[in-house]
Design goal:
With about 425 residues, the chain is an alpha/beta fold. The chain has 15 helices and 19 strands. About 5% of the residues have low confidence.
């Protein structure tokens, strides 16, 4: 069976293996932009009569599917085809055994070299949704998440497109700093048309870059200096470095309306959070459980569902304060507000507004397996939780959490008890 040869071009002459595969091909596929680049290669004159240019990557994939078993096909790609490139798409569609990849330098490698920054420990990501606005890819991150990612990683390299452009990325960072009051030295590099004769490198602050426009294609590199102090939402270094254990006084919330630290710890333990998947926090309040879960498991998709707008504001403020990127707040009342959410692997119910039976059923109907944890203050809610979990085929366990905290009275420590909490765990295997 013929192999599909995906050959990266743009920055270096072809090596012997790439050249041999290209010259032996029956068909050379390219888009119009890459064709302009390829015309500068020595091999162009030898294969120019075999070149086919398609209007879209989808047409190109269809052509390969119809012809690669009887024709030797070389597919030209930009830079490294396996770095958010067409090589991955070819392998997904035709399988690993059908594809050979010959990479050039990636545009990201070149960009970091051009600005003389190391890519060690940098987050490398794509905000390139594809050439067709109607078929844009679902991306791992959105522009709104870039400021939080920068706080977490310190350095980011981004593949952009005309929708997610450098100026929009810079504006998101600038607006975040204006809202949070954070004073930090952030430098942005925009590397335009790398490898072309009119290649250009621009650097500046987020505010400066947000006011400019840039040629495509381009790469954005963002580097954060040492963060300055925040205003009322200051996050101390020892807090931002914590993996688990946020205190109540560090989390913005309405007075008294927060899952107590000790109860939160037990709740997280009972949830047995997976590294990846979907976690619903229903009746999330200020989002304390959501934030602990999101910080513990960066690969977990955490969704906070809350009906009260004031509490939603607290969730969003806390998310911004702690730089959490894998948490989404949803304003709505369960169970109706759950209909459009991805199916959960874990569910925490901290508040149900008297609709516990419908909420448990809604979650259970979407779960093939997983864990639901419900916190209850009253015996009546405890009984309802057990009844509804068992009715929906969950194996139930109950823990009672009784907490006493020390306080000083006349220079002596006394223990003061808090209301006991029932932590009900339902597991479906």
């Amino acid at each position: 069976m013929n192999k599909i040869h995906v050959i990266g071009i743009g920055f270096r002459p072809l090596d012997n293996r790439s050249k041999k595969c290209l010259l032996a091909s029956d068909v050379v596929l390219a888009n119009s932009r890459l064709l302009d680049v390829f015309k500068n290669y020595d091999e162009y004159e030898n294969v120019k009569d075999r070149i086919i240019v398609h209007g879209s990557v989808y047409e190109m994939m269809d052509y390969i599917g119809d012809n690669y078993k009887r024709k030797k096909i070389a597919l030209l790609a930009a830079g490294d085809p396996m770095f958010f490139g067409i090589g991955r798409l070819a392998i997904e569609r035709f399988g690993q055994d059908a594809v050979e990849v010959y990479p050039d330098l990636s545009s990201m490698q070149v960009a970091f070299s051009r600005v003389r920054e190391t890519s060690n420990n940098a987050l490398l990501m794509s905000l390139h949704g594809g050439p067709n606005p109607e078929k844009r890819r679902k991306m791992e991150y959105e522009i709104s998440e870039v400021p939080g990612l920068l706080e977490r990683h310190g350095k980011i390299g981004i593949l952009t497109d005309k929708v997610n452009s450098p100026e929009k990325i810079a504006d998101a960072i600038f607006r975040r700093s204006a809202v949070s009051g954070q004073r930090s030295a952030v430098k942005i590099y925009v590397c335009e048309k790398l490898g072309y004769d009119d290649e250009k490198i621009t650097s500046g602050t987020p505010e400066e870059i947000s006011k400019k426009t840039f040629e495509h294609p381009n790469i954005v590199i963002i580097k954060s200096g040492e963060a300055g102090k925040r205003g009322s939402g200051e996050v101390k270094k020892e807090t931002s470095d914590l993996l688990f254990g946020l205190r109540e006084d560090e989390i913005g919330h309405s007075k008294g309306l927060i899952t107590k630290d000790e109860v939160r710890a037990v709740t997280i333990h009972k949830l047995r959070l997976p590294r990846e998947g979907v976690f619903w926090d229903i009746g999330a309040g200020s989002g304390s459980v959501s934030m602990e879960a999101a910080r513990l498991c960066p690969g977990l998709n955490v969704i906070s569902i809350e009906k009260n707008l004031e509490q939603i504001n607290y969730i969003n403020e806390n998310k911004e304060k702690f730089g959490i990127v894998n948490l989404k707040s949803v304003e709505g009342q369960a169970p109706d507000g759950l209909n459009d959410l991805p199916a959960p692997d874990r569910v925490f119910i901290g508040g149900s507004a008297g609709k516990l039976d419908a909420i448990v059923k809604s979650a259970a109907d979407r779960m093939n397996a997983g864990i639901i944890v419900i916190n209850a203050v009253t015996i009546e809610t405890l009984n309802d939780a057990v009844e509804n979990l068992e009715k929906n085929n969950f194996k139930v366990n109950i823990s009672e959490v009784s907490i006493a905290r020390s306080k000083m009275i006349k220079d002596k420590r006394h223990m003061s008890a808090l209301n006991p909490i029932f932590v009900i765990t339902g597991e479906k295997s």
